[in-house]
Amino acid sequence: MVRKIQASVILPTYNEAGNIIKLVEAIRNELSLKKITHEVLVVDDDSPDKTGVLAQKYFSKIPEVRVIIRKKDRGLAKSIRTGIESAVGDVIVVMDTDFNHEPEVVPRLVEKCEKVDFAVGSRFVRGGGMANKKRELLSRLFNIFLVRPIIGSPVSDNLSGFLAVRKSVLDKLDFGTIFYGYGDYFIRLIYLAKKNGATFAEVPSFYQERQYGASKSKFLNMFKDYLYSALAIRFGREFKN
């Protein structure tokens, strides 16, 4: 009899060799403590620092950890799509791989999906926040006064990228209209999931500073791309890829 998998955790990676082993072990430990059956999918964009190869070797005898190395058509959103399409769990979790997102929040997101379709790890609810207070303020203002009202979002943190969603909800969506670009995929995913009747909740999440390596996000460019995506949704020019 095949064991039922409750959660599939997708980790899109690029040059995260310094984090990936500790992160996967921390996630698995948190889920095991809650007795949540799970798999972890490391989806690596053929990192020059050999993140994917390192993970393959280290977890080669652990069937609950799968590693996919993508050598074509690379990019964050497309890596996430690959992970979702390969996942077998009832609940799909997506998170950053630099310890920006806390492993201990993962089981809380999964458990929240027992009551709702879509749970977001949010910086902007009580108990959430960011170590970088300047970025927290800018992100909070950007979310509350721009993105949220533009797309009519049901959540306060639309740039989170830390989520758990029922696979049955994702199966109803057209991935080609969502998973392209960088973190702006998250805005499209929230909008289309809501449009398809999904229910939402937020779980407090505190964003730590990166533990290893350099950030791949350019703050102002990121905001520009996110605002463009929100406006494109608002004026019906999105979802054409």
Structural features, described:
It is a single chain. The chain has 241 residues and is an alpha/beta fold. The chain has a single domain (7-234), classed as Spore Coat Polysaccharide Biosynthesis Protein SpsA, Chain A, CATH 3.90.550. It has 8 helices and 9 strands. The protein has helices at residues 20-33, 51-58, 76-86, 106-112, 133-151, 167-170, 185-195, 219-234, and strands at 7-13, 38-44, 65-69, 91-94, 118-122, 129-130, 163-166, 200-204, 206-207. Helix 5 runs parallel beside helix 8.
List keywords for this structure.
241 residues, two-stranded parallel sheet, 37% helix, 8 helices, 17% strand, alpha/beta, Spore Coat Polysaccharide Biosynthesis Protein SpsA, Chain A
Proportion of residues in β-strands? 15-25%
Secondary structure tally, helices: 8
The CATH architecture category equals Alpha-Beta Complex
Global shape: globular
Low-confidence stretches: none
Give the spatial strand order of the biggest sheet.
Answer: 3-2-1-4-7-5-8
Percent of residues in helices: 25-40%
N- to C-terminal distance: 40 Å
Mean pLDDT over the full residue set: 91
CATH class: Alpha Beta
Instruction: Give the CATH superfamily.
Output: Spore Coat Polysaccharide Biosynthesis Protein SpsA, Chain A
How many distinct beta strands?
9
Rg, alpha carbons: 17 Å
Helix/strand structural class:
alpha/beta
- Could you tell me the CATH topology label: Spore Coat Polysaccharide Biosynthesis Protein SpsA, Chain A
User: What's the helix-strand series?
Assistant: EHEHEHEHEEHEHHEEH
Tally the structural domains.
1
Biggest sheet features = 7 strands, mixed
